[in-house]
Amino acid sequence: DSEVTVLTTFYGDPSFNYALHPRVTHLQPGSPSFNGSMIDSRESAPLMDLTISCSQSECDVLLPHAKHIVNLRRAIVGTRPEMVISYMDFNNNCVLSATRGLGLPVIVSEHCDPNHNFIGDGWERLRRRLYPQASCVTVLTEESLSFFSSVAGIRGRVIPNPLTPAVFSRSDEA
Q: What's the pTM?
């Protein structure tokens, strides 16, 4: 019996636009239930170890999100997953920071072409530092994959968007 837990990093309206399967659990690490307890040094140690080797620009973007990253780590550890899949550049950096030292396979997915989507110096540097820790980095195009060609240790794969431009240009034939 496999189960799926969806962790959403935005805390807000818990309702979805669609119903989830009964074996899918939804958690929000930004919610008050995760933010209530104090963070101890054991929980924050992997993040603090990361910051020791970071540049100032990396620390400037990472440290304001330390509590979020530790809460994300709590949620991940609490679900005891077999693997973690993350989407979007900011979330990918936070998930890879949160899963340091857990021994979990992590797949990160980029849906924007990083050649044309500058996310700021600190986040860009973190992406190049952290993405090699991912079990796999998936992108939509070969051009996107080329962005990571200069980063040692990245295991990347192209998984194209299943909806091609032709799908959007056809008129309805009902």
A: 0.85
The residues near 122 (Cβ < 8 Å, ≥ 6 apart) are: 55, 57, 58, 59, 60, 61, 62
- Assigned token pair, 60: 């400037």
Sign of the CA dihedral with 50 first, then 55, 57, and 63 last: positive
pLDDT digits (tens, 9 = 90+) for 111-170: 999 999 999 999 999 999 999 999 999 999 999 999 998 899 999 999 998 877 666 665
For residues 133 and 92, the answer to whether their CB atoms sit within 8 Å is no
Tokens of 96: 């890879």
Going along the chain, which residue ranges are E strands?
Answer: 4-7, 24-27, 84-87, 106-109, 136-139, 156-158
Q: What one-letter code names the amino acid at 68?
A: H
